Amino acid sequence: MLRQLALVTLAASTLTACQNMNVAGMVGAASSLFQAATVSDEQIQALAVTSQQELDSQNNIASANSKYTTRLARVTRNLRSYQGVPLQFKAYINPEVNAFALPNGSIRVYSGLMDKMTDNELLFVLGHEVGHVIEGHSKAQARSSLLTLAAQQAGAASGVPILSTLSGSQLGALANGLVNAQYSQSHEYAADAFGLKVLKEQGHDKSAAVSALRKLESLSGGGSGVFSSHPDSGSRADRIEAM
């Protein structure tokens, strides 16, 4: 949710290190942080691509002949695009139970989650993530993350706060923030509905959605991974089961 932000002049400059993104371009040369809320979809997509590249470089992507890549391709064979939006799925070799979506349609799932799910349960989880993309939730999170970083920099400055550059480490922080984005209950319900829609379109009933959420609920004791960004798995399972 956007907070009222103090006016701050934004200086145009090129990002450092290997991340070569112009801040003025990202925020439309806005004269205030409030105006930065009008960042264009194209600029958010550029941030998403940069975040995807950053996260892929940080993680161990399953190889082409990996059992995870093979299985993921099978489960998503009818889900390569949705409503005209191209989708790209990759698996990270990581025991953490997690999955996330970026605004550009890049969806990443951890091997730890794949190990816990049947194919239909995995399809629901991936459909849920597709929902965050199609419904614009991940785009809203990207915009919010950018504004939060701008506000933090403004608050740390003395005199007239100036957001001059985003360093490579700051872009990395933005990318990792998108992995652990906190979605509202309404966004989670909408994404669940999307996951159910994907299941139905591929000839499956709601049982896989319920069992997937029950599994996530049973694993949520540590409060990490997918549970930090997709809370209340148990109540969501109850809700779907009662439909």
UniProtKB/TrEMBL annotation:
Keywords: Hydrolase, Metal-binding, Metalloprotease, Protease, Signal, Zinc. InterPro entries: Mito/Outer_Membr_Metalloprot (IPR051156), Peptidase_M48 (IPR001915). The keyword Protease applies. Residues 233-243 have a biased composition (Basic and acidic residues). Residues 219-243 are annotated as: Disordered. Coiled coil: none annotated. Its cofactor is Zn(2+). One of its GO terms (biological process) is proteolysis involved in protein catabolic process. Binds 1 zinc ion per subunit. One of its GO terms (cellular component) is membrane. Residues 1-17 form the signal peptide. Residues 78-242 form the Peptidase M48 domain. Belongs to the peptidase M48 family. This is Peptidase. The lineage of its organism: Bacteria, Pseudomonadati, Pseudomonadota, Betaproteobacteria, Burkholderiales.
